[in-house]
Design a protein that fits this description.
Helices cover about 30% and strands about 20% of the residues. It has helices at about 5-15, 35-50, 95-105; strands spanning about 20-25, 50-55, 60-65, 65-70, 75-80. It starts with a helix and ends in a 12-residue tail after the last helix.
């Protein structure tokens, strides 16, 4: 969840590990906050990769033990099955969200900038 710079970086790393990925971003563009040539590099790689789907202009409605329920700009609902869900939204920690999620999903890890 999150198609800004942190989400693009993580997705690009996982893409090379042959993981099936669905990048879900509420804004119109994946990589909206990534500088021009880097945004082009990331989005071009994602478009070419058979294991990556991009879902811009898409809201997350629910996250549960089976995956993520989304709604796109046209109002279409989609369920993305997932074994692992990452939240890469912004650069500021949201430790209260992490605590709420950890109560529901004990195997929750706070990493990167949020861990500091």
């Amino acid at each position: 969840i999150g198609g800004g710079l942190p989400g693009c970086e993580l997705s690009h790393l996982l893409m090379g590990k042959s993981r099936e990925l669905d990048i879900i971003e509420e804004r119109k563009k994946i990589g909206f906050d990534v500088g021009g040539s880097y945004r082009f590099h990331y989005t071009s790689a994602f478009k070419k990769a058979p294991n990556v789907d991009m879902s811009p202009s898409t809201l997350v409605e629910e996250v549960n033990s089976r995956g993520v329920k989304t709604r796109d700009a046209a109002g279409n609902e989609k369920f993305v099955r997932a074994n692992t869900v990452t939240v890469t939204k912004g650069f500021r920690p949201n430790l209260s969200l992490a605590a709420q999620v950890k109560r529901i999903v004990p195997e929750t890890y706070v990493i990167g900038d949020c861990a500091n």
